Amino acid sequence: MLDKIKALHNEIKHLTAQTADEAEHLRIKYLSKKGIIPELFNDFKTVPNEQKREVGQLINVLKNEAHELIMDLKEQFANTGVKGTGTDLTLPGTLMKLGSRHPLSLVRNEIVDIFARLGFNIAEGPEIEDDLHVFTALNFPEEHPARDMQDTFFIEKDPDVLLRTHTSSVQVRVMENTQPPIRSIFPGRVFRNEAISARAHCIFHQVEGLYIDENVSFADLRQTLLYFAKEMFGEKTEIRLRPSYFPFTEPSAEMDISCTLCGGKGCNVCKYTGWVEILGCGMVDPHVLEYSNIDSEKYTGFAFGMGIERIAMLKYQIKDIRLFFENDVRFLDQFKANI
Ligand code: DAH
């Protein structure tokens, strides 16, 4: 019995077929109900009990290999309809699966493009920062709660090393090295010591904007942001600026856009107010200019900062910020069309 199996093994290894019929013939010969291999299972009954285990395994291996080889032979002819050649060059190729851009990259690129059309260029700064660039040079008072351990991930205390909590730090980096006119945006990742939920994450992304020149006014700020809102969310979008407070701008404002879902009528996205907040902004505080050796008598400027996740959630109606970080392909695949 063992010799028989061995011989069959050698035999099937060398099987070939030139036509579909030949391949089918082999299938019948070896694999059909009355074929050689199923017949082996009949002989199996006569194998002594102590050999049954070994012989059984060998027959199974033989059966699987024969099946695979003969099916491969048959496949050569399966979809060609052409006898004798294995390949039909006129068949469409197998589609290659393409990836998709991450929604946060899509939105970041769109923000960058919109501001590029207004003459803003791009700069980036380090994610690992110090107190000076994240807080002090931006006019944060010494005892300001944002410096608290609750919000900031401190890496070292002395010398102080921390993860930036906002991209406003890049304003300082740029102003230190450049004299106006400055018209730039700074996209990047920021970190805050916050509990992760559907609405907040300890890592997220912002885009900061800075425009400093002679005679830059609040009207310029408003017009720039109105243009951005209409480009990003559609021509019908309206904006409203509400007075607010940030240490590095005076006056400061928060900007709302008319709700992208209900168009201002009121729904659960805008909590029935018709408006949703998308960014903070203001005129750069003269202290901040002076801190970086920019003449605040000669120059004025505006700044703004927005969360990319927030813009993406509004634009694509995404309800949970954690989806951006889970990399579930069922989520990511939905952005293929937007590349
Ligand atoms: N840095 C602020 C934040 O993270 C956002 C911001 C507000 C940036 C006002 C600005 C600004 O440049 O002028 O919440």
**Helix fraction?**
25-40%
Give the names of the bound compounds: 3,4-dihydroxyphenylalanine
Biggest sheet statistics: 7 strands, mixed
Query: So what's the CATH class of the largest domain?
Result: Alpha Beta
Count of helical stretches? 12
The structural class is alpha+beta
* Widest sheet: strand ordering: 1-5-6-10-9-8-7
Per DSSP E runs of 2 or more residues, the count of β-strands stands at: 10
CATH-derived topology of the largest domain: BirA Bifunctional Protein, domain 2
Termini Cα gap: 63 Å
Strand content: 15-25%
Low-confidence stretches: none
Structure explained in plain terms:
With 339 residues, the chain is of the alpha+beta class. It has two domains: 2-80, no CATH class; 103-338, BirA Bifunctional Protein, domain 2 (2-Layer Sandwich), CATH 3.30.930.10. It has helices at 2-13, 20-31, 36-43, 49-78, 103-116, 131-134, 168-177, 218-233, 286-291, 308-316, 323-326, 329-332; strands at residues 121-122, 128-129, 154-156, 161-163, 182-191, 203-213, 239-246, 249-258, 275-284, 300-307. The strands form two sheets. The chain has a seven-stranded mixed β-sheet with strand order 1-5-6-10-9-8-7, with helices on both faces. Strand 3 and strand 4 (161-163) form a beta hairpin. Helix 1 (2-13) runs parallel beside helix 4, helix 2 (20-31) runs antiparallel to helix 4 and helix 3 (36-43) packs antiparallel against helix 4 (49-78). It starts with a helix and ends in a 7-residue tail after the last helix. The model has no long low-confidence stretch (mean pLDDT 91). The protein binds 3,4-dihydroxyphenylalanine. 3,4-dihydroxyphenylalanine is lined by residues 166, 168, 208, 246, 249, 280-282, 303-305.
